[in-house]
Amino acid sequence: MADVPKPGAHVWTLVNAGHRYDCELRFQAESSEWECRLLEDGELRYAWRFTRRASAEIEAEMQRWFLLREGWTRPVASPSGE
Predict the structure, then answer these.
(1) CA proximity to 33, closest of 46, 51, 48
(2) What is the spatial distance between Cα 66 and Cα 69, in angstroms, rounded to a whole number?
(3) pTM of the model
(4) Alpha-carbon distance 28 to 81, whole Å?
(5) How do residues 5-46 score in pLDDT, each as one tens digit?
(6) Which of 34, 40, 42 is nearest to 59 (CA)?
(7) β strands within 30-70, DSSP E
(8) Closest of 20, 65, 15 to residue 57, by C-alpha
């Protein structure tokens, strides 16, 4: 049975034209590194590794800022909470 990767700690979600970007942080125990992962519609698109969590958090914020400038927005919750 193959190991199923554990999800990282969710940092943010942005949406645009029916697409979604999620950012998560994940600790890689085998290398003692933090990974900032960017997923597009659930598929891994980019990953950066850092020796410090704070550096991974900064990268996550930089990616969020870049996407916001490109027209991506935070998802809007429906009034019914769905």
Answers:
(1) 51
(2) 5
(3) 0.83
(4) 35
(5) 566 899 999 999 999 999 999 999 889 999 999 999 999 999
(6) 34
(7) 33-40, 43-50
(8) 65
Sign of CA dihedral 3, 54, 56, 19: positive
Residue with tokens 């933090």, as numbered in its chain? 34
**The tokens 């697409």 sit on which residue?**
19
Tokens of 56: 């991974």
Report which secondary-structure segment, H or E, holds 6: none
Query: What is the chain's Cα-based Rg?
Result: 14
Q: How far apart are CA 2 and CA 56, in angstroms?
A: 28
Beta pairing partners, 43: 40
Give the tokens for residue 72: 């991506």
